[in-house]
Amino acid sequence: MSSLATSLDFAAIAWFAAAVALFDTLLKLFRARTIAGAIQAQREQWMRNMAGRDNRLVDTGILQTLSHGNAFFASTSAIAIGGLAALMGSGDTAQGLIERIPYVAKSSGALFEIKLVLLATLFIFAFFKFAWAFRLSHYTGIMIGATPIPDGSNLAACEHHAQLTADLIGVAADHANTGLRSYYYAIGALAWFFHPLLFILATTWVVIILVRREFFSRSYRIIAKI
Fold first, then answer.
1. Is residue 199 within 8 Å of residue 188, measured between CB atoms?
2. Quick one: which of 217, 220, 204 has its CA closest to 20?
3. Neighbour count for residue 203 (Cβ, 10 Å)
4. Letter string b/e over residues 6-45, b meaning 16 or more CB atoms within 10 A of that residue's CB
5. pLDDT at 11 over 70
6. Which residue, 128, 126, 129, 107, is CA-closest to 116?
7. How far apart are CA 147 and CA 155, in angstroms?
8. By the 8 A CB rule, do 213 and 219 touch?
């Protein structure tokens, strides 16, 4: 592998890390102006409505649907991890098969394994995020079940419990969203198998899509009621 290719590979992985870190920083600094922040306000309204109902089956039904999505992605992440582990265990055989794909760049065995490790790391990270979001959904169900029945004398307690429940759902959603972004980043990482410059372009493209969807999408304007 030429020195130019080595320099490009280092630049590509550095750009990937910087782009991911920059986007996460933007989300933290401007959360109130993101679709995640807008939907959190809707969760708080949802929980206030829930606290005022005697029958909360509709709320547990919605929560169960959300929980199933987290379980699906956790299972998908585990399958992806298993497939990548099998590729790493196959050594040169797997590398030879993948590099027969048109336009896939030739690389050393060590660099090929680093590419696989990057993908595996993203899916392992996603698995833990989705698994924890799934668990938090269970805790939220318990919180909904523990919400006091309003009787006119405990409205403040109901409101406080509803806010705590909305906050817990928000934490679960943050973990799920972070796990889902790992899938987006994995798309960029796949481009590294073709060329480091394509890796840089794919990473940039993915981050631009994420920025648009979080800050400037039509969905954000609808949810935020702008």
1. yes
2. 204
3. 25
4. eebbeebbebbeebbeebeebbeeeeebbbbbbbbeebbe
5. yes
6. 107
7. 11
8. yes
Residue 2 zone, left/alpha/beta (φ > 0; ψ -120 to 50; rest): beta
Residue whose tokens read 């705590």: 164
Contacts of 100 (CB under 8 A, 6+ apart): none
Domain count, the chain: 1
Q: Does this model's pTM top 0.70?
A: yes
Q: What is the pLDDT of residues 90-109, one digit of tens each?
A: 766 766 666 677 767 677 77
Q: Is 73 helix (H, G, I), strand (E, B) or coil?
A: helix
Place of tokens 């929560």: 63
Location of structure tokens 């829930």: 50
Contact of 118 with 125, CB cutoff 8 Å: no
Residue type at 77 in one-letter notation: S
CA distance 110 to 56: 55
- 159-163 long-range CB contacts below 8 Å, 24 or more apart? 159/48, 159/51, 161/51, 162/44, 162/47, 162/48, 162/50, 162/51, 163/44, 163/47
In the block, residue with structure tokens 């899509």: 209
Closest CA to 74 of 169, 171, 176, 172: 176
Q: Which two tokens stand for residue 39?
A: 């939907």
CA proximity to 132, closest of 167, 80, 179? 179
**Position of tokens 């938090």?**
136
Q: State the residue range of the domain holding 67.
A: 3-223
What does the chain come to in residues?
226
User: For the segment 37-78, what is each residue's pLDDT rounded down to a tens digit?
Assistant: 999 999 999 999 999 888 888 999 999 998 999 999 999 999
